[in-house]
Amino acid sequence: MNTQEVTVKNSGATFTPPALANYLSDKILKSIDFASEKYTVLDPACGDGALLSSIAGKIENSFDFELKGYETNIDYLIEARNSLSAIIENNRFKIELQDFLEIAMQSDNDLFSENFSQEYADIVIANPPYVRTQILGAEKSQQIAKQYNLKGKIDLYFPFLIGMTNALKKGGILGVITSNRYLTTKSGAEIRNFLIENYDIIEVIDLGDTKLFDAAVLPAIFMGRKKAGKKQLSAPCHFIKIYEEFNPDKTCPVTKINDVYDILSKENSGLYATEDNRVFNYNVGLLKHSHIKTDIWQMTNDIENQWIEQIRKNTAFYIGDKFKVRVGIKSCADNVFLNENWDKEPILPEDTLLKPLISRENIQRWSCETANCLKVLYPHYSQNGKRAVYEISEYPKAEQYLNIHKKQLEAREYVIQAGRNWYEMWVPQNPAYWKFPKLVFPDISIEAQFSYDESGSIVNGNCYWIVAQTGQEKELLLLIQGIANSKLMAQYHDLCFNNKLYSGRRRYLSQYIEKYPVPDPTSPYSLEIIEIVKKLNAQKNNLQSLEEELNINVLNAFGFKD
Ligand SMILES: C[S@@+](CC[C@H](N)C(=O)[O-])C[C@H]1O[C@@H](n2cnc3c(N)ncnc32)[C@H](O)[C@@H]1O
Question: Considering just the CA atoms, what is the radius of gyration of the chain in Å?
Fold first, then answer.
């Protein structure tokens, strides 16, 4: 990474392209339903002024206004001042070299209380920096979390959203581009709640993988009107969701259109093909949100809601009711612990400590390749069902090998601070479970890949796993495997969890998989599913007709006709 890329990564500076800036300004201006003598427009992290310039260009001849901007990078700030002074008089804007997060909190108020201390802006337009707190550093992120009363994993745009709300007048309009992750993740729960409490949400637009803008994260737009009080729950609001369709259903009509912005202006859901030959699945509807913290914001229309309801009515239990979905092991020093070819190491650790490791690349839909997989140096074992760690001096070769890397391993502060041995895994999981039959699936893949393993292998941290400890649980595991690998569940996953990445890849996080519905395991369809899955797990080729049979049985199990 060169210096500029590092700066960009650390400050989260990806500027909004003019077309997207105009799209957002238009949305904001359409939402204004109040008169003000002079409109104050704030961009708390204005970069080169793309958003302020766009909105100024649109209101210049119709309203009296003043623009306020903050920016921490002097070069960007100069660019912003230059571009604004090219289009409006200098007394109409004020761009300050300031850390917005510092000044947004210059009051004793608790932002989660009824009162806000600043409330000077009629409009906030923003694309705040997207930076994970890991990159910010522990000290800075703890300071921000404390200042903004935020818990758990936070991203820099969370405190920005709170600070912007503090600056916005009641009834004022917020139009902001952020990562779309808070819509559907556990760590976004707190900020979702904050937004519901403080805004009448006007619209949420998940821009998905449209690549309208050059950021590593998938962007979303939030449009809200700040409430006068927090008591009333926001009504369901309009949503737009657009993702590229890599495998469009041939029976569905595709409408030809110029570009993504033309699609975004459409009122109807459907498949749209742009001039550059990309096909997009475009959905509009009413966003469902609730005050239950774990509920994500669901973007589904009436027909989809009925379909989901039908599945829920035919659900006997959700995976999380009966099974725990675990992540694989994490070493935080994979170069030391994982190896494809231990024989080539100058010191070969004792065999007892070397275990086969299933990693993302070993998994296919119905099978995992355990013969030639990586081996992990795993210094843990099970003692009375609990995790224990080997006394490394009893394994002199392993000790000698690990000693070579002692400095690196000791630098893993979280292991040492937890009072554990320097040669332990960071996340070792409970070794008692490896011997049981399990489902293993990668955390990210295009299609579901729930594979069955009985080899006793350990699972890598880029996968999740579900263990069956009894014969009855094993049958349930096979049923779950059939359901999870079915077409129906792919659709359910997209509708209910809406967490796609670029290039059609999906995330299979434990929080979603635990919410997968399972039909009555004693129904004839479920029993048939289990038999088909057994065949699929045993067979290497010609899986297609069996998969078709499986898909039909899954539909039937949830009460759908073929
Ligand atoms: C994603 S860019 C967006 C810039 C501009 N609003 C746009 O849409 O093109 C975020 C900007 O925030 C600036 N920034 C980062 N931290 C900041 C802070 N604490 N206060 C003010 N600006 C900040 C970065 O330097 C960067 O220019």
Answer: 27
